[in-house]
Amino acid sequence: MTEGGFISFLLMIFLLSFIQFSTIVLGIFPPQESMKMELIHRHAPQLNPRPLTQLERIKDLVHNDILRQNMISHTWRQSLNPRRKAWETHSKTNNKSRTTAIQIPLQAGRDYGTGQYFVDFKVGTPSQKFRLIVDSASELTWMTCKYHCDYNCRMKGRIEKRRVFKADLSSSFKTIPCLSDMCKIEFSNLFSLSLCPTPMTPCAYDYSYMDGSRAMGIFAKETVSVGLTNGRKAKIQEVLVGCSDSFRGQSFEKADGVLGLAYGKYSFVSKAAEKFGGKFSYCLVDHLSHKNVSNYIIFGGKKTETTLAGKMRYTKLALINPFYAVNVKEISIGDVMLKIPGEVWDGNRGGGAIVDSGTSLSFLSKPAYEPVMAELKKSVARYRRTKINGVPMEYCFNSTGFVEASIPKMVFHFTDGAKFEPHVKSYMVDVAKGVKCIGILSVNWPGISNIGNIMQQNHFWEFDLTEGKLGFAPSTCT
To answer: Do 247 and 160 touch, CB atoms closer than 8 A?
Structure first.
C-alpha cells in the first residue's frame, strides 16, 4: 500500500469510527431506528412480595383513579385558559423528515398493584439504574437523589428503600442556576422556587400532586442511556431531570421517581421526539395478563412489530399542555346512538376528552355517563345485581354464565369519522371471583372525560406529535 493509500485508509477508519460515535453517543441516531422501554405494571410480582387479590387490586385502582381524575380536572381547567405554552407550536415546526426512533418494555399482570406502569431508566455518566412511574399527565422526570453529599453519598445507597441517584458521581450532571430565566420563568409551571441565595445556587422545585404527594429537589440536565429497537444502546443528552432529596405521599410507592410523559416542552416525550421524529406508541396487554406477558413503549417512527387485528384508524390529536386530547362527537352502544349534549365534548364549554395511560378506569362527565350506563345496564339486566363494599362502581352483577357476545358494542365516534371500539372486557370489568362491574365512573359536570388504560387495552396506540394525530388498531400486543 502506498503512503497516500495508507493515509486514506486511516482517514476512512477514523470517519467510520466518528460516525459510529456520533450516532450512538452524540444523539445522531441511525435512520429507521427507535427507542424501546419495557413497561412493568404496578401489580407485577417483582413489585409485590404478596400477590394481591383481584378485589384488592380493584379497590386500590379505583382509589388512585379518583385522586388522579381530580388532578386532571383541575389541570385541564387551567390548561384551557388563553395563555398557551410556546411548545404547543412544536408540532408545526418539528422536522418531519426524521424516521428514527427509541423503544421501552410495558408489563402487565394480574399479580400486580394500582394500574400504573413502571419503566427501568438509566441516567448519568456512568449510568445509574432506577425504576420510575410512567405518568402521561406529569411533565417533570425525577429520581430520588443526593447532590453534594460527597463520601456519605457514596456510602448511603438508598432513601426509604428506594435507589438513590448519586449526582456527584455523574460527570454529565449539570445544575441550572436559580438566577437564570429558565428557572424563574420557564420552570414556573414545574413548581420552581424563587429562593436564590447566590446566583449559581441550583434552581429548586417543590413539585406537588393533587393527592397531596410532593417531591422537592433541584433541576439539572443529564444524559439518559436508552436501548434501540435494533438491540444497540444510545444516549440522549441534555434531558431535564429533577434531583429529589425529599418526597412524601403514596404516589411514589414502589418507585424511585417519575418518568414525565405529558405533552410539554420539558417532558421526556419532547426530548425523545427531537431525536426520534415526533412519535411514540404503546400497546397495553389485558390488565389481568399473567406476569410473563409484557409490552413496550416505543419512541420513534419505526413500524411496530406488534400484530394488528385490524387496520389503523386515525383521528386528530389535540395537544393541550400537558394532555393528549381527542375530539369525540358521540357514543353509540349497539345500534343506539346515545343522546349526549354536544358541550360534553367541547373544551371551550366545560367538557372535552383525553386519552390517559396513567388512569386505569374510564371517566365520563355526567351528561354522557348517565345515558351510557342506562344502555349498558339493559344488556346485563338478566344477571343478578350485587354490591361490593369498597368499590364505588354503580352497577355490579353476578357473572355466572356471562356471555360476552350478548353485550352490545360500545363505540366512540370522533368528529373526523374515526371510530374506536373497545373490547367488551374493557368496560365489563372483573372485580372479584364471579363478579363483574360496569367499569366506568362518573365525573361531575362541567368536567373532562377520560379514556383510561383498561379501555385502551389490547389496542396499539400511536401518538404522532408532528402531524397532530392519534392512530389506533386492535391488537394482541404480542
So the answer is: no
The model's pLDDT over 174-223, given as tens digits with 9 standing for 90+, comes to 999 999 999 999 998 888 999 899 989 999 999 876 566 778 999 999 99
Largest CA distance in the chain: 91
Closest Cα to residue 450, out of 209, 211, 119, 115?
115
**What is the number of alpha carbons within 13 Å of residue 176 lying toward its C-beta?**
25
Give the count of alpha carbons within 13 A of 158, CB side only: 9
Catalytic pick from 60, 111, 245, 356? Answer: 356
- How far is 454 from 217, CA to CA, in rounded Å? 33
Question: For the segment 34-81, what is each residue's pLDDT rounded down to a tens digit?
Answer: 888 888 776 666 666 566 677 777 777 777 777 777 777 777 776 665
Asked about 135 being catalytic, the answer comes back as yes
Q: Which residues pair with 331 in a beta bridge?
A: 412
Q: For residue 77, with 0-12 CB atoms within 10 Å meaning exposed, 13-18 middle and 19 or more buried, which class applies?
A: middle
Helix, strand, coil share of the chain (percent; to 5)? 25, 35, 40
Residue that the C-alpha cell 394488528 belongs to: 308
Residue from 60, 111, 135, 245 carrying the catalytic annotation: 135
Phi first, then psi: give them for residue 96, nearest 5 degrees.
Answer: -80, -5
Smallest Cα–Cα separation from 260: which of 115, 134, 114? Answer: 134
335 labelled catalytic: no
pTM higher than the cut 0.90: no
Residue 353: strand pairing partners? 326, 449
User: Quick one: which of 474, 407, 400, 392 has its CA closest to 440?
Assistant: 392
How far is 349 from 446, CA to CA, in rounded Å?
8
DSSP string, 248-261: ESGGGTT-SEEEE-
Cross-strand bridge partners of residue 358: none
Amino acid at 19: I
